[in-house]
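anyone seen this seq b4? input:
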Amino acid sequence: MSANHPVRRSGGRPVICITTGEPAGIGPEISIRAAWAMRERVNCVLLGDAAFLALTAETIDPAIRISALSLQAVRNGGVPHFGPDRLCAIDIPLAAHVVPGTLDKENGRAVLATLDAAIEGIQAGWFEAVATAPLQKSTINDAGVAFSGHTEYFADRTHTAQVVMMLAGEPHGIEGVPQLRVALATTHLPLKDVPAALTVAGLGTTLDIIHHDLKNKFGLATPRILVTGLNPHAGENGYLGREEIDVIGPALAAAQARGIDARGPYPADTLFQPKYLQDADCVLAMYHDQGLPVLKYATFGRGINVTLGLPLIRTSVDHGTALDLAARGVGHADCGSMEQAIGAALGMADASRLN
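predicted toks r here
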């Protein structure tokens, strides 16, 4: 049983794990709702405090049944085959009582332990992929663990030198563009640090990762990637900055020589329109707030986050912990993005089996 292609039981549903995120936020609720809604298609295994998840499920709908397993039991015997009449939760106990909407650093390490369990489970072949609910970075840092985000943590724990953050979704109101994907050359950096972080070699590796994963995890035979410039008007021939001439252009030329269909650099303010996007499989933006505002405006509630370049499949929701909604009790959160994340993870797992 390999990490990349776990054995599926004959006629059985694929097994995908869900890390339930910050317990004081909406993560537990949307994880349970989405897993229950999709239980006929996929066996979603929840990773979190089983007692807390069962209590949350009871509040959502008394019909939702959760069977708890210890992590050690799964290590000894794998994930049992439950039918769609119940959900499975691998118990990763919290240290403190949860008050919805109120963060508690005592639970930070338990949240991190769910990510470790997901990685272990995929590497052991228990799961085919992981979908992650939102967590609160500050809670983990306040618990004494340096943490900058899901993407960086999965890269570190899988010893992956470089990963790429990509968000995707079905856009509202962009005619002729069924799927919008935006990848990032840099992620969580102050804007002042972005130019120095862009290098010919780094952009080349980013393009290699995007090209490889669009082929092997999304099943796209000949991916087409459109690349933004960094500066207004893509630098306007050097008058508004030279990064397009000195870094982005050479990186694109080298990628094209390797057989990658990557084009640009395009001015970011005019790239996001149908005449360009309808023939593109992905847009590579230079920094976080250059590409993601457009994508989130066009797809919010149906968008997902995908980490490219990992030796595993990881998807996530496109929103945060929404502590204010959690404080109001269950019933206010929309689980649509989590359903999309699970569906995308399933699709990527299927595509990976063909490669």
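The longest helix spans residues 336-353. The two ends are 16 Å apart (CA to CA). kinda curious what u guys think
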